[in-house]
């Protein structure tokens, strides 16, 4: 089975998304993390397409979606894009499974529009975010650091690779849990070939940029408190995503946590069978 490519618009950006399966089935949205792409969900989509119609967006600046002129890649921008996609599809409420940055985006969306989300799975979507420490630096410090980082990004060039094999080796360096076959598949879908024959990743370098207006824990808890759907929080026991991060989850109303052994940040790649077992037990029949 191969997905169908479609497009929608948000803030004048043309955003790409995939559709897997029969649209008469309940809708499920899968959201990837930073510097990733929609095709990283292929195994998950194929596994769940018997129960859902699966929609998988490329976030702005990623995959086959348009890059943002000026480099606006904050969590609130991505949440706006998710809302635009949901309105474009027109099938709310949605079940959502989201990874890393995508998890933070999904939580903001579900907090702002709780009536639009029926069930939510966040994989490594809480730790390592800008607000997680609960401590805010002075505004003038944040502003100067942000300006400096943006100016440096203007000088940054896309890293290129001479071959798919070379790019695949870089993929494996980033996640040692990947099998060579999966690493190559993710790489093939995650690169584009330049005129000189070299390969570059599809994500915009400006997705590295942060924001001087940090999303603080007070705001996070306010949004979390609005979420009424069942929530499943998945962690990888070997991940940096939760390491040295202590979060108060009492703002959530209906949630449970699952830690997956022998998995890092990409739980759905590292321990796919266990991930699928947990998710299938959580999702409605």
Description:
This protein is an alpha/beta fold. The protein has a single domain, classed as 3-Layer(aba) Sandwich (Rossmann fold), CATH 3.40.50. It has helices spanning 42-48, 75-89, 101-112, 139-155, 164-174, 180-190, 217-226, 267-270, 272-282; strands at 4-10, 13-20, 27-31, 53-57, 94-99, 117-123, 160-161, 191-193, 199-201, 231-236, 255-260. The chain has an eight-stranded mixed beta sheet with strand order 1-2-4-3-5-6-10-11, sandwiched between helices. A three-stranded antiparallel beta sheet has the order 7-9-8. β3 (27-31), α1 (42-48) and β4 (53-57) form a beta-alpha-beta unit. 39% of the residues are buried. The mean pLDDT is 92.
**CATH homologous superfamily?**
Alpha/Beta hydrolase fold, catalytic domain
Helix content: 25-40%
- DSSP strand tally: 11
**Helix and strand sequence:** EEEHEHEHEHEHHEEHEEHH
And the CATH topology? Rossmann fold
Kindly provide the name of the CATH class: Alpha Beta
Q: Quick one: overall form?
A: globular
Question: pLDDT under 50 segments (min length 5)?
Answer: none
Average pLDDT number = 92
Strand order of the largest sheet: 1-2-4-3-5-6-10-11
As a whole number of angstroms, the C-alpha radius of gyration is: 18 Å
Question: Which structural class is indicated by helix and strand composition?
Answer: alpha/beta
Q: Estimate the strand proportion.
A: 15-25%
Whole-number count of domains: 1
């Amino acid at each position: 089975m191969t997905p169908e490519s479609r497009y929608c618009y948000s803030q004048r950006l043309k955003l790409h998304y995939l559709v897997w399966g029969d649209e008469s089935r309940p809708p499920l949205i899968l959201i990837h993390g930073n510097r990733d792409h929609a095709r990283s969900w292929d195994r998950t989509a194929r596994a769940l397409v018997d129960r859902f119609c699966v929609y998988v967006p490329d976030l702005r600046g990623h995959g086959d979606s348009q890059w943002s002129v000026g480099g606006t890649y904050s969590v609130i921008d991505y949440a706006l894009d998710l809302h635009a996609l949901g309105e474009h599809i027109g099938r709310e409420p949605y079940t959502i499974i989201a990874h890393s940055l995508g998890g933070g985006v999904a939580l903001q969306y579900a907090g702002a529009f709780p009536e639009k989300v029926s069930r939510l799975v966040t994989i490594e979507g809480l730790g390592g975010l800008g607000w997680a420490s609960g401590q805010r630096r002075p505004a003038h410090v944040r502003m100067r650091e942000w300006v400096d980082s943006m100016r440096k990004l203007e000088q940054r060039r896309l890293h290129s690779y001479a071959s798919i094999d070379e790019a695949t080796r870089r993929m494996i360096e980033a996640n040692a849990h990947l099998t060579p076959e999966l690493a190559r598949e993710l790489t093939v879908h995650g690169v584009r070939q330049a005129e000189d024959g070299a390969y570059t990743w599809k994500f915009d370098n400006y997705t590295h940029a942060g924001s001087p207006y940090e999303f603080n824990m007070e705001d996070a808890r306010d949004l979390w408190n609005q979420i009424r759907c069942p929530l499943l929080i998945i962690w990888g026991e070997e991940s940096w995503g939760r390491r040295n991060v202590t979060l108060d989850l009492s703002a959530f109303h209906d949630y449970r946590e699952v830690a997956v052994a022998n998995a890092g940040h990409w739980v759905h790649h590292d321990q796919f069978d266990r991930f699928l077992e947990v998710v299938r037990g959580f999702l409605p029949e």
